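Hello, quick one for you while I still have it in my head. A protein chain has come my way and I'm curious about its shape. I'm sending you its amino acid sequence along with the backbone structure tokens. I'd be grateful if you could look everything over and explain what you see. Here's the protein in full, and shout if anything looks odd to you:
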Amino acid sequence: MREFPKIWFLRHGETEWNAEGRVQGQLESDLTPRGLLQAQRQAELIRAALGPLRPPCFVSPLRRAQRTAEIALAGHRLHTEPRLSEVHAGGLQGLTRDEIAQQYPQIDPHARSALSLFCAAPDGEGFARFHDRVLDLLMGLEAPSVLVAHGLLGQVLRGIICGLDFEEMEALPNEQGCIYVLEQGQETVLR
């Protein structure tokens, strides 16, 4: 198993499309009031976790992650990192599972996991490219870092660090309002 620097990973707060069950991928929707509260909770958690530390903070360019980072990491310098964007879900982006069933009958809209569904998307990024993008990001980290991004990206990132296979990555929870601390191939969740 590869060794990576310690990572504090924050998934963005709930968005309007999360609440509607709509596939976001790399499209945008705003944080809900609940999502804003989740980001505020992450601010409390990160203050306690970091104390006087000022690690580099890397954020997906997508608006929901940027807004979460502005709240959760207020006072920290934020660096936008395109490799932290969510998986591109091709033709499924913007659709609900019912709409996917109607428009893409060859795709199971109730796939075992969102990771399976998004990575099977027509004209999407696919798992291999997504995995390689996340691994490339991890290989470039030189120091303990805070990363603010997305649920499926978090599953793949956490899976790589913890040495999991695809099925194990699929089974990882995708909580919002918490912080995943990844160190020495292990994950701890701060709530």
Summary: The chain has a mean pLDDT of 96. The domain at 7-190 is CATH 3.40.50.1240 (Rossmann fold). Helices lie at 16-20, 33-50, 63-72, 97-103, 114-119, 127-140, 151-162, 166-171. The chain has one domain: 7-190.
